[in-house]
Amino acid sequence: ANNNLLLGGIFHGGVEVYGAEWCYGCTEEEERSGVRRLPPRSHQSHSYRTTVPLGRTQLCEPEVEALLERLSREWRGNEYDFVDHNCLSFCNALSQELGVNRIPGWVDRAQRVAGGGGPA
What we know:
disordered N terminus
């Protein structure tokens, strides 16, 4: 995270559910999913900063697995866009599907401001 930015930083995010962290990133292969499953807090390209509880899902583990299979097909890595379709967009989409809170505004503030979608 770059905390020297006026916007408060640019962050990578993932959602932890049932012992795995799910995140989204760029791939060059057209049909390849950008969704990745990792051990929590272990992404090699980013420094871990904090965990923000979003709530507990009412979905059982098999329902979450089916949800993530569907999202993996829908979130292709070659469609990644730094402003409009990124890891934080994925976190919010997954959180909504899980029935938990969105990520806090300070996490995606830079994305929203860059895209004209909200105040700093």
